[in-house]
């Protein structure tokens, strides 16, 4: 990987689908480019990317496309998987493509697994990749994965693989946990999983945030990142928090895609893969009202073109 | 698929690994053959098979091996997946191989998804396969998948796809739910997810059981299936329940593999993929005592050869 992610704002890039529910490279690249133009890094293959709804071949194809068309130093693909060979294959492809790092879910099918087993999973991947360019950001998202990454596990991984274990995305929603991660570990970049915690994260010494709503509100979030020491930082934080809470009244992934569809006059952007469902007409109307009342920079046809 | 599974006892076949943690076809086929010799059907790629720890390519390879070497009419592979294309590909391979049916997990990454989304997932698979030989057994295992299959969802799927939706495996551990599934639906085979519920399931009109411990105690479980109306059926049930509870004191998958290793003098059978962990020496010793005290037919070198 070319360089370590140096903190900032990243978006788990939503994945558009064509009429046959295949990933739509053209719409996807346009959205990626718009995000980059807003100083937003690309955490492709995140939870909000429906990454686990994509086959390994589909993820490999999109990764190859991104690495060819975009700056790989701005890419942090999600490469965790339930199956060790899948995680190894996608991680190796990311390293070989020069990605800045990878965001790695734990294997998430079995619940209540011991930390020893999770340590073995990450160890096996690191040893099989065997490449000092590898930078792993652990992905702690217990509300979805139901498999937490404990502080003790992080400590053990950092002791065994310093330099390779580069940081964490904390999507627990539990600020005390985020604060503990920042406090306890050195040379370890802690990203909040929501911009709601961006300012507290930066003030505590964290690295930034990787957040769903950065798909549609990246500029304002980046402003908080840049101006976190400014006198009006709290007011800026309040504004992005209020925006996020407006969106979070809807199912997040369908809502993000619907907003992009609304602002690019391209309602087909709203397609999702099952088990997710598109917003229905009533929800779309309500969402449009939320968006109309918000003051934010949106992906438009001009920017995305 | 050649024929509908007609009820009985099936085992989610545990998957042995070689020293590089690759699926070991030779050990696997030997275990499959021994299970068949004990009148036990082969629910390959179940939870206890570490199926979600295998890549799609590994599952396809094992399926092809099984279909060539064994009677496909005794195979019920697990083909559910988080990603629609994976579920479609493996299900199509199962249908084309003549498997008796498929056991299908819901997509299990996202939690709290609407029944509409799960209906859409199964619908999309059925329509893409487009083959009247397809027989789907729904896999309800909320303690692990965390994505339940509701009675209302089953009703809707049965109404839309009669003949294709063939049954369910209920691994909820909630007898009231199993009883409701049997009571509410016609032409729908309900398999208990544990032999602990085998006799109640059969008495209520269910089809049988698909159970982890059938990997190591298939004959006694099959005896209950065959003799469920016999005067001593309750005593037989008590014996298999007691055996299961002895094994369930240990982590189930490592314990099953360890037992096979003990009885075939092949300790390497005990290998698991992370995030699971092999039993340690203390657990192995305790497990060996449980097994020595039990009266049951085990996979031995002679039977498996």
What can you see in these coordinates?
The structure is a homodimer of 305-residue chains. In chain A, strands 2-1-7-6-5-4-3 form a 7-stranded parallel β-sheet. Chain A has one domain (8-230): TIM Barrel (Alpha-Beta Barrel). Chain A is α/β, with parallel strands linked by helices and 305 residues long. Chain A is built from 13 helices and 7 strands. In chain A, helix 4 runs parallel beside helix 6 (151-160) and helix 9 (218-226) packs antiparallel against helix 10 (233-247). The first copy, chain A, is globular, with a radius of gyration of 18 Å. In chain A, helix 8 (198-204) links the parallel strand 6 (189-192) and strand 7. Chain A starts with 7 loop residues before the first strand and ends with a helix. Chain A has helices spanning 25-37, 56-69, 84-96, 115-129, 142-145, 151-160, 175-184, 198-204, 218-226, 233-247, 252-263, 281-293, 301-304; strands at 8-11, 41-42, 102-104, 136-140, 165-170, 189-192, 208-210. The interface between A and B is large, with 39 and 39 residues. Chains A, B: Keywords: Lyase. Chains A, B: Pyruvate binds at residue 210. Chains A, B: This is Dihydrodipicolinate synthase family protein. Chains A, B: Belongs to the DapA family.
List keywords for this structure.
4-hydroxy-tetrahydrodipicolinate synthase activity (chains A, B); 13 helices; TIM Barrel; homodimer; alpha/beta; 9% strand; 305 residues; disordered C terminus; globular
